[in-house]
Amino acid sequence: MGHKVHPKIYRTPLVFPWDSRWFAKKEQLPEFLEQEVKIQAYLFKKLKEANLDAISIERTPKDVTITILAAKPGVIIGRSGEGLEVLRKEIEKNILQFKTKVKLNIQAVKQPAKSARIVAQNIANEIEKRSHFRRVMKNSIEKVMAAGAQGVKITLSGRLNGVDIARTETLSSGKMSLITMRSIVDYGFVEAQIIYGKIGIKVWVYSREAFCQRDKFEKNPEEKKIIRRKVN
């Protein structure tokens, strides 16, 4: 019997830091957690065309800072920053209910081809255009390996090509080290909505091994040394 563990939470905080960085009292925790879930769901749906990689939320007593990693930041910013202003007002009004102010930071993804979620989103877009799923999977694997990744695995589940019985198809290439904790494994999950139902898309991208902590939200990412306590 297999025990599946999310590749990122398995390596947090050893290799990856927490994306959500805030502290709440016991009575505030349900409200803050609900707001964070709604913010992430709203942004991933609203900014689908921008190919989001990840969202980081930081809280202070007076404001909420949202950092968005996107392959197409220009789609979010818009002309003269109009897109950012619209997003900020909608989040403050509909989710936070004007209790706190919102600050938005947009960062570009340096290597979109090595981002698992962006790869999954691109596959979903192609499938929604009725492209053949196996050809799309092979093309995506070739792009990821050409970008310098050491391994990639893609799994699609659902009524592929519109057949009556749902099934699962998996293609992989290179090395995929899911057990080693120091492996940098990016994971993404996206659902493609088509006329005969949803198709789940899972992508794993293995870059390399790391002996230090890495934060993708830093503008100049540098590996941070992991502090280990000496055992007497």
Overview features:
232 residues, alpha/beta, Ribosomal protein S3 C-terminal domain, 4-stranded mixed β-sheet, 4-stranded antiparallel β-sheet, 29% strand, globular, disordered C terminus
Q: What is this structure, in a nutshell?
A:
This protein has 232 residues and is an alpha/beta fold.
Can you characterise this structure?
There is one protein chain. The protein is of the alpha/beta class. It folds into 2 domains: 9-108, GMP Synthetase, Chain A, domain 3; 112-209, Ribosomal protein S3 C-terminal domain. The chain is 28% helix and 29% strand. It contains 5 helices and 8 strands. The protein has helices at 29-46, 73-77, 82-95, 116-128, 133-146; strands at 20-21, 52-59, 63-70, 101-108, 151-158, 167-174, 183-194, 197-209. The strands form 2 sheets. A 4-stranded mixed β-sheet has the order 1-2-3-4. Strands 6-5-8-7 form a 4-stranded antiparallel β-sheet, covered by helices on one side. A hairpin with a 3-residue loop joins strand 2 and strand 3. Helix 4 packs antiparallel against helix 5 (133-146). The longest helix is centred in the N-terminal third of the chain and has 18 residues, at 29-46. The protein is globular and about 50 Å long. The chain starts with 19 loop residues before the first strand and ends in a 23-residue tail after the last strand. The relative contact order is 0.14. Residues 222-232 have low confidence and may be disordered.
